[in-house]
Design brief:
The protein is elongated. The chain is built from 27 helices and eight strands. α2 packs parallel to α8.
Amino acid sequence: MAPVQQWLAAFIKRGTIPAQPLTIFLAGVVGILAGYSCIFLSLMIRWIEDWTLRPCMELARTNPIGLIGLIICPVVGLMIVSWYTRKYYPEAVGHGVPEVVKAIARRDGVIRPAVAIVKLLASGLCIGTGSSIGREGPVVQIGAAFGSSAGQMFQLSARSMKVLAAAGAAAGISATFHAPIAGVIFASEIILGNFAVESLSPIVIAAVLANVVQQNQTAHEFAPEFPHIDHKFDGAYYELPSYIFLGMVCGLMAVGFTKLLYWFEDESEYWIPKHWIRAIACGLLLGVIGTGYYLMYPVAPQQSVAAQNDNERSTPIPVLYGTGYAAISHTLHLENAQKVTDVDEGKASHEETIRLTRDQMWQHLIWLLPLVIVKPFLTSACLAGGGSGGIFAPSLFIGATTGAVIGLIFNLFLPGWCDHPGAYALVGMGAVVAGTTHGTLSAIVVVYELTDDYRIILPIMAAAGIASLIARWVDPESIYEKKLSRRGESIARSHDLHHIENIAVREVMIRKFPTVQFRDNLMQIIKIARENPHIESLPVMNDDGSLHGIIRPEDLHRVLDTDISPYLVNAHDIAMVAPIAVSPDENLLEALRDFGTRDVDTLPVEINTGGKRVLIGLLVRADVMARYREELLNN
């Protein structure tokens, strides 16, 4: 990359271009690249399906070998992806969004450029061979990698690189969901953790251009992902209890999915430590269950007229394979035939709707109930096996099937107090996404843009808000945050203090500082303190050079007010032992949290060298607040 940087610097004279216009221009380029990447990923998934899953399905009609092929396909995909990503690009393993959040919060927005290509190929192979994961997380990481690479190429500041990475993430959501507004909100709410005005323009530009590319280069045009939805909420009070109940259930489902995902990962690593054997086991689990369910239900119990007339939709891949969009679309169009009026009969979308009699509702209930339970289990297996894919589509799937199940139950037993089952599937999508990601605004807007159905926005808002509240109450960490916290990389962020999220501890810490030995007496400590009045707390070191603790001013004053001889008091007698230490890569907002945890004015800054903690600096609360005030004035 160095020669490219030198050529660009000489060609465009980087120093003469203001940072803000350059960042906006690069955000547009990133948006275009993310849009084409999304198209390529979708085509790649389709190509691989056409070469693997669909020939096996065709063969299975006449020969049992086809069923064996269906079982083996996910195994092969997981084995290849798990081996390559774990060996060369471990950040491409999993669902991608946590790695983007970490790169922005801890690494100044730096993401290895090759991650974009590796993630694209790995996710396409995984999903194309049947892994039960989504394509949204990969596209977010791919877009963020493009943004970060652009910032690195032009040697932009850390703040600009973070904005470009967030812009790439917004472009990914915009392109894959056909949801530019949701992309902007997702990048601000979840990726950056704030809605800072200075970062919105690049994010908006990237989201718009990514969506324009997607709309013009595919047959999708300007239609939503799930068209011909015709549900509405007329403000009927008697329907509200059912939607509130759905929000509560979806909140618990979201927490259950999050906990299952990481429980499965822990258990599989414990019982099957070798990753290639684990990939085979998890792939076989998906293949056997997914193929078994396909044998029971090759298609849904009843298809719409439009689906029956479409060769591809009339023979979908197994419902538990891939993103599951076909099943989601199916649930969104479920209607209770007994509630259809004469006006409804004449609607243009009638070919997409699936009007069910009471017996057919029971058939759908039996078909959907296992999917609600099995889908999160298989998604967890795919990610535990080393798969590369997202959890956004599985969350939508779980929400749609859970909502449809509850809608069917209400229509069977309380038909006068509820809407069509498809309306509950639509609301359930937003509720489960809000519960898993803790991004309530993102969930509401993405469901609206996926369906272009504003008339039912009030139940979506209510259910999403309730689901997010319950999920936060049961488990404060989202599905993204939990992956980081399990590795000891919790990210503290705040909308009000976003100015210091871009500043690392290493930029503010004191690098030259005095130390005392844990055997030094009070007279020696006082002498060192007087020689260094700018240091509020003194670090106390052990004989092996490791940190023993710190001596705070109040600790020193307390012992000076006594009648004890200063020669009888040693440093280890008054030191606060084992204080919280911070990493130089943490941001100042995280450091402020640590200051409050132990109520100290100075924090030791340590790094891990050869398995040993080494003190490299001191972080003073006053310096952090001074930098915060400086950033406020500058902005």
